[in-house]
Design brief:
Layout lengths: L5 E5 L3 H17 L5 E6 L47 H9 L9 H8 L9 H18 L4 E6 L3 E5 L6 E5 L6 E3 L1 E4 L10 H13 L2 E3 L17 E5 L3 H10 L6 E3 L2 E3 L6 E5 L27 H8 L7 H24 L8 H10 L5 H10 L9 H5 L10 H19 L6 H16 L8 H10 L4 H12 L3 E5 L3 E5 L4 E5 L8 E3 L1 E4 L13 H9 L17 E3 L5 E7 L20 H22 L6
Parallel strand pairs: 1-2, 1-7, 2-3, 7-19, 8-17, 9-12, 9-17, 12-13
Antiparallel strand pairs: 4-5, 5-6, 10-11, 14-15, 15-16, 18-19
Helix pairs in contact: 1-4, 1-17, 8-9, 8-13, 12-15
């Protein structure tokens, strides 16, 4: 009797877990009682993988509330396979408290689960327990003929002919692992240093300085940052928030009643970025009332028309106008339906004229000015993107005060339902992200803008940032930050456009951001080998995949019959492997399509007796 067909899933985090969950959901329909071996390869525990591993600081939080996190499909997901309902994170915690679920978790994590409310921001190690439970539930749902084998190691390369079995070389195994199909779900990538980072690292070595290149903050060598020393931090997103927490509370400081009490072990963080402001706080209230029809402008017809054009797409020219109109549709629908006292035109009249106007046209701008008297109630995406554009302050101290006012105003607005059009724009961003997946590689600006506006830190973290600023532990450098090297004095020097003439010198520089998800600079031997063998890679370094089922494309545009890839390193990247309930979950749709394609392929091969060795 021949051996069972096999799938090797490389990456055991939430994306790999999601693929196995979809295999379990579709197996009865598409695979029957055939045998199948699934080999899951990851050096970190299955379920959470590296980013969501259990052994990390309890100070590191998710940037989503517990009620906004699910790993399960619902009727809003556009998929061909069956919906298999499951609990969102807050409901799962209720099941744990009621004894209906017994998770695999340490006592400290169990205590956190027992105290979790839906509007709390859980720790990442708590999320790890939820993801592990989701993984175990997916295994239990597999039919008897499908078995999962875990390999706690690293995959180094995938080889094999297009028409035959693949071979996955593992770090600690002499013989390669045979596979009829390979699914790459490796998540965020480590990177080799790009030329600019190599130059900065070499400068730091010459002068005995500290340079921490882009990395996962939890894995960075923060011990190299000495108490009291100035540290230039380039980047003001979620990686900065993690850095801020680990270097303050993580070193014994405390927050009490809005005041930070330092331990004396903190460095002084001088932070700036292109925008010069932190990501917007997560919205602190839920949706009520009528929802707009979505997508209103980014529909399949629009995407088909774009994809039918000759030549590459230019995001700003070809895509952004329609995205901006979609976000405006969400904003103004909410404004007219929830806050009509701030409008001056009948909603039906506005909606008809808005739909007919060309994106970015003077007619559209005039309509909005007529219908929404207060400019503060209009959606200005340029101002949201660059709030310090053209702003100048006479001194660094003036900037500190102004930015504290800006952050305070942002916190107030993001927690005030009177501005619920902001929540509508957030939902519109999720809708847009799901639609733009079809377009492939549209460049990095959109993903950064989405994260800045829709995936910012919890409100409590920004309140802590304010306290740290008042305590002098964090200092703001403003927008358009540049960092130079001074060979004569052996120092890094940072300047920003917001305070002309001001500069900051330091012996330490931290790049507070994740490495770019680029195969051109990846440190992964697996993905380097895939790239060098002939897989198609875009100009920005993303792995090209078929948007229909996530099969890897070669340089001629042909999908590989036996290789799939899903995640942020691909042209089908999206906003995350898990999502808010009832928001369509594009990752869930991709997982389902890949699982169905894999099961169908293996069933057909098995039935024809053509499983090659």
């Amino acid at each position: 009797m021949s051996s069972a067909p096999s799938i090797v899933v490389i990456g055991g985090g939430p994306r790999g877990t999601g693929v196995i969950e979809r295999i379990a959901a579709n197996a009865e329909e598409l695979y029957g009682d055939h045998r199948l071996d699934i080999h899951l390869v990851d050096p970190y525990p299955a379920g959470g993988g590296r980013i969501w591993r259990p052994d990390q600081s309890p100070l590191l939080w998710m940037n989503s509330m517990a009620e906004d996190v699910t790993m399960f499909t619902d009727e809003t997901v556009d998929l061909d396979g069956p919906v298999v309902a499951g609990p969102a994170l807050d409901s799962w915690a209720e099941d744990v408290r009621a004894g209906r679920v017994v998770p695999s978790a340490d006592p400290d994590v169990l205590a956190e689960i027992h105290g979790l409310a839906g509007t709390d921001f859980p720790s990442r190690r708590l999320q790890s327990a939820y993801l592990r439970w989701t993984y175990d539930r997916a295994l239990a749902a597999l039919p008897p003929g499908i078995t999962v084998h875990e390999h706690r190691t690293t995959a180094l390369a995938v080889g094999g002919p297009r028409g035959g079995r693949q071979h996955v070389r593992l770090q600690d195994r002499a013989e390669p692992l045979p596979a009829d199909l390979v699914v790459l779900t490796v998540g965020h990538l480590d990177a080799e240093e790009e030329p600019e980072q190599q130059r900065l690292s070499a400068f730091a070595r010459r002068h005995g300085l500290v340079h921490l290149p882009p990395d996962f903050t939890a894995d960075s060598d923060l011990d190299a940052l000495r108490p009291g020393d100035p540290v230039i931090v380039r980047g003001f997103g979620l990686a900065f928030i993690d850095l801020m927490v680990l270097l303050t509370e993580g070193r014994g400081g405390r927050h009490e009643n809005g005041v930070y009490l330092p331990s004396g072990r903190e460095p002084v963080l001088y932070v700036g970025s292109r925008r010069g402001v932190p990501y917007h706080a997560k919205i602190g209230y839920g949706w009520t009332g009528e929802r707009p029809a979505a997508p209103a402008h980014l529909d399949e017809k629009w995407a088909d028309e774009l994809l039918g054009r000759p030549g590459p797409l230019d995001f700003r020219r070809d895509v952004w106008p329609a995205v901006a109109k979609e976000l405006g549709h969400a904003h103004y629908h909410r404004l007219f339906t929830a806050h009509p006292e701030r409008t001056a035109l009948a909603h039906e009249v506005f909606a008809e004229k808005y739909a007919a106007a060309d994106p970015g046209s003077p007619e559209l701008a005039g309509l909005i000015a007529e219908a929404v008297p207060d400019p503060a109630d209009r959606l200005d995406l340029d101002a949201l993107d660059r709030p310090l554009e053209g702003v100048r302050h006479a001194s660094p101290e003036a900037l500190q005060e102004a930015l504290r006012d800006y952050i305070t105003a942002d916190l107030t607005r993001r927690h005030d339902p009177a501005h619920s059009e902001d929540l509508a724009v957030f939902v519109g961003l999720l809708t847009a992200y799901a639609q733009l997946v079809r377009l492939g590689d549209i460049g990095g600006w959109w993903h950064g803008f989405f994260s800045y506006l829709a995936s910012g830190p919890p409100g409590p973290r920004l309140r802590q940032l304010l306290a740290l600023s008042r305590a002098g532990v964090v200092r703001f450098l403003g927008a358009d930050l540049t960092v130079e090297t001074d060979e004569e004095h052996g120092l890094f020097r940072a300047t920003g456009a917001t305070v002309p003439g001001a500069h900051t010198e330091a012996r330490a520089l931290v790049e507070a951001r994740l490495p770019d998800p680029s195969l051109r600079h990846t440190a992964s031997p697996l993905l380097r080998a895939l790239r060098d063998e002939g897989a198609a890679v875009t100009d920005t370094g993303l792995l090209s995949v078929d948007p229909r089922d996530s099969r890897v494309l070669d340089r001629a545009g042909r999908p590989h019959p036996r290789r799939f890839a899903l995640g942020p390193f691909t042209t089908a990247r999206n906003s995350g492997a898990f999502t808010r309930p009832r928001t369509g979950g594009p990752a869930f749709r991709q997982n389902d399509a890949a699982a169905r394609a894999a099961l169908t392929f293996l069933r057909d091969l098995s039935c024809r007796g053509r499983l090659a060795s």
